[in-house]
Structure formats: structure tokens, C-alpha cells
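[User]
Um, C-alpha cells okay?
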Amino acid sequence: MLVGLPGAGKTSAGQLVAAQLGRPFLDFDEELERRAGRSVTDLFARDGEAAFRAAEAALSAELVDRTAMVLAPGGGWMANAEAAATLRPAARIIYLRVSAAAALDRMGSALAARPLLAGADPRTALEGLLRRREALYAMADQVLDTEALSVAEVADTLVAITRELERADG
């Protein structure tokens, strides 16, 4: 399970990791959009963040018995104690650490689809999210600093981490 700020590379790297390991990949935001028939932005606007987080928690509960998947929940998933507790201890959580500035650069035009960053100053909003979530992200099993890595380098490192964790689990 890959956690971190929007723009940390959870989806981009996660897809590559899943392909390299021959496992299914699930992006929570994409799955919730598919189920609702609406965008995350619309879900937040119409239903509110609390309803979205409840949907994330319900999706997490559905995944409890699924094994060997690469999961990429939304950036706020770790702040939802119910969702995180549901998938622990079976899931290995890896925090993809990145600065707010680098995350914004990576998002580019996709920034418009991020409801919590939709204001006049997305950098300040993202820095605020990072301050509020950093301690939660740091509770992950592993932390990978992605700041200076390409998506391919992040994916390769994640594959190595996953294989090492699996060897340690026996």
C-alpha cells in the first residue's frame, strides 16, 4: 500500500510496481469514481469530504481478504483511522515522501482535479496537508524519499522493498 501526498507518485509508481510483480493494482480514487459514476472533485463538492472518507473506509474493508495487491489510496487515507486499521497488520504501508513543491510540479494540469487544493494558493494548501498528515504518513512500515527519483526509480525501489518485506515475512 502506497501512501503520501497527492503528487507523490502513488499511482504512477504503483502501476509499474504491480506490473513488475505481476499483481493487480487498485487506485482508490479511480475505483471510487468508477463506482459513483462521478469524479472525486464532484464527490467532494456534492457529498463532502466525510462521505468520501467513509467510502474509502468501506473500500478498505472490502480489500481485507485480498492478498498480493498494490494499492494506492488517496492522500488523506492515512488520516482515516478506521480505514488504516482495517488493512493493518496484513498490508505493508510504504510512505512515498515528497515536498509540497515537488508534488505540485509533478501534478501539473492534474492539480485541477484535486478538491483539497482547488483554492487560490495550492502550494499553501498542500503544505498544510503535509503538516497535518506527516506524522500519520510516518507510521508506515517503510519511508521512501521520492524527491530526487524518477517514477521508474521509485518503482524499482518499491519492488526491492516489497521483495525484502516478503522474505522477512517468510
Remarks:
- The radius of gyration is 15 Å.
